[in-house]
User: Fold this.
Amino acid sequence: MSSGRLGSVSTQRPRRGRLSRSAEFERVFRQGRSHAGRDLVLYVFPRQQEGPPRLGLSVSRKVGGAVERNRVKRLLREAFAREAGRLPPGTDAVLVARPGARELAEREGLAGIHRSLAELVGRAARPGTEP
Assistant:
């Protein structure tokens, strides 16, 4: 029974691919560069270590109740997994969901969230966007 669970965990992004400490979030917010859209804000900061981009999420209660927030977070993680390859290695990113992200998720699902994130990642990955 537990071997089936382990099999499903191995297909997900590893834990180290996420920002989890408050100090990591603060560094990205304070020293990183922001790219804002209608429903999402993407903060990016190049860390000193190589490795795949890491993601932090900020989804406040303004987005909705726990069920809505968790759905938005799940869609954001999935969309980021698809777009992370466009960011330079060693990038820390924090995605802030604005209240409109819930409506976007309800109306268009993963496709809408992915499109909105892809636009922001395109801006962040474009040369000459460094401070």
